[in-house]
Amino acid sequence: MKHPIVQTLLAGGTSTILHILLFLLLIFSFDMPTDIRQFGQPEVEIVQATVVDEDLVLEEMARLQEAEEKKRAAEEERQQKLDEQLEKTQDELARKEQEFLDMQERAKLDAEKLKQEAELEQQRLKELEQQRIEQEEARKQAELERQQAEQAKQKAEAERKAAEEAKQRAEAERLAAEKAREEAVAKRKAEEEARRKAEEEAKRKAEEEAKRKAEEEAKRKAEEEAKRKAAEAEAKRKAAEAEAKRKAEAERLAAEKSRAEAEQALQRQLDAEAEQRKQKRIAGVLDTYGLQIQQRITRYWTKPANAEAGLLVTLEVKLIPGGDIRSVRVIKSSGSEIFDRSAENAVYKAAPMPMPSDPDAAQKIISEGIEIYFKPE
């Protein structure tokens, strides 16, 4: 599809071409702004503080100043590059504008060629215009950022001043505290002096009072000493009398104790001898009873098949009053489980067991049980 301007140029002849040239000149007769706004710097984060050290404040101010100068130098270099680029763009626009005028002059000789080149040049001019718009936007953005950086700088300066004021306040507070401390020291010294004088006066009065009391105490002690000696003589008399009574009572009690201990020792000896005779008697009864029980169990024992000869099993048999079996336990096995079980069965079959006529022996069997060495011949 052909461009409308070119169609008009072809249809209208020389008059139309002149109108087109005038229109194009109006399009490109614009001023290119040259000031480029600086890009903004990031806001400097300020940490609030309540105690300000002068060296730290000066160091921070120097650091901020150095950073500000570096950023300003970098921004100026960037601004210069943008200005140079914009100048090149303006030169390029001027050159293209002149080329377009030359092309229009040549269009009189070759209308078709002029139409094609005009379309191409118009497209390039649009691109250059777009580039100029973008550069203008960049310049505006740079200016905005420069203003933001200036605001950040002003904020940092305000915070520096606030820090300086805080430092001055801290110094004033320090001086006030120092003055208060000096006043407190003076007050403390005055109080200590007053206390020292009061202590000296109290000490003098105490010494006088102590002297008076010492004199009274000496008199009182003399009177008490006389009374004490009289009381001491009476006490010695009573003590001698009491000591004589105590010794007599102690000798009586010692004799009584010795007699009682001798009687107790004799009784213990008699009890031990009686217990020994009792245990010996019970042991004799149990030995005889054990043989009787072993013989009774043997009568009720059934020899297991293939049982070896000479086997011996030790059993613990516990009875209840009347001779019935309470429990049977293998204490030492014969080595043959079948033989051991046959001996246990024989014990149960032999029940009830006859009880010894001796009540002590019978009670011992019921309470402790009896060991049976079962070895049938």
TrEMBL record:
Q: List UniProt keywords, sorted A-Z.
A: Membrane, Transmembrane, Transmembrane helix
Annotated transmembrane regions = 6-28
Which compartments is it annotated to reside in? Membrane
The way this protein sits in the membrane is described as: Single-pass membrane protein
Q: Give the source's domain of life in one word.
A: Bacteria
The main place the protein resides is membrane
| Residue span of region Disordered | 68-98, 132-268
Stored Pfam families: TonB_2
Coiled-coil segments: none
Q: Which PROSITE patterns match?
A: TONB_CTD (PS52015)
Gene Ontology BP, a term:
bacteriocin transport
Q: Which Gene Ontology molecular function entries are recorded, alphabetically? A: toxin transmembrane transporter activity
Establish whether keyword Membrane is in the entry: yes
Q: Where is there biased composition of kind Basic and acidic residues?
A: 132-262
Q: Name one GO cellular component term.
A: membrane
Every TonB C-terminal domain range:
285-377
- Mind telling me what this protein is named? Cell envelope integrity protein TolA
Q: Which gene encodes it?
A: tolA
